[in-house]
């Protein structure tokens, strides 16, 4: 990684929630991109860390810009390549969709413990109380989302947009993990429509390990 990459480049292992967001959106936009595995089991290079000292993925390079923070990357992609359908011009419409991207960060904090336990940790090392508490927290968050989706088809409003992408990725994990879940009909309906999107099926619905 000596010089800036010549076209849209995504750095990050695909089995990361935050990398999946960016790759899925690149597919939605039909962007010509390339992705390099880095982070997790792939480790990091000094050249990468010089650009992203957080020791985290994802990071993108696009012409003059080097950018980390997955939701900031989504916003950049929408503004640069997406047009108004993805990134509404009206400040109110934009804010109503946009907040679900930040809401996801709170949600992800709750889902982290059950995800790491069920997908990546031997069962004899599980903290069962913490897992149960966190699943309950996830359910409380999802109830809020369920109420919202009961009144409109997408988190982004009347059309699918970037507001749906972060929670789409985390919903895949929620629905894939093998524990009993309360029913959230509007979330389930939204998720069924998300699953029909080719970029989601191809890049997000991969093994969680
Ligand atoms: N707020 C950051 C969080 C990034 C993050 O936590 N990434 C995880 C993967 S989902 C990571 O890099 N973990 C360490 C690693 O993969 O080496 C973002 O949204 O991009």
TrEMBL record:
SUPFAM superfamilies to which the protein is assigned, alphabetical: GST C-terminal domain-like (SSF47616), Thioredoxin-like (SSF52833)
Family matches, as PROSITE patterns: GST_CTER, GST_NTER
Domain GST C-terminal: 90-209
Annotated ranges, domain GST N-terminal: 6-85
UniProt name for this protein: Glutathione S-transferase
Record Pfam families: GST_C_2, GST_N
CDD domains: GST_N_2
